[in-house]
Write a structure and sequence with these properties.
Helix content: under 10%
Structural class: mainly beta
Shape: elongated
Order of helices and strands: EEEEHE
Radius of gyration: 14 Å
């Protein structure tokens, strides 16, 4: 989605208010911006859907550094 102050972000839908056409989003990382800080966002701000999410194997050196390991 494209958030007005955070830019392009990927979050999970935590709550949907259909009559107001609003979504409350949350991240999966403990350091993610909180739902309260982000606030409700318009359904129209959603730009795509994540169908699959791959995680590195336990003990992997990939972690948050990505594939390059930098």
């Amino acid at each position: 989605m494209s958030h007005p102050s955070l830019g392009k972000i990927v979050k999970k839908i935590a709550q949907h208010t259909p009559n107001k056409r609003q979504l409350w989003l949350k991240g999966t990382d403990p350091s993610s911006t909180s739902m309260q800080k982000m606030g409700a966002v318009s359904e129209r701000s959603i730009e795509g859907v994540v169908l699959y999410s791959l995680a590195p194997p336990a003990g992997s050196k990939l972690g948050k550094q990505g594939l390059t390991g930098r």
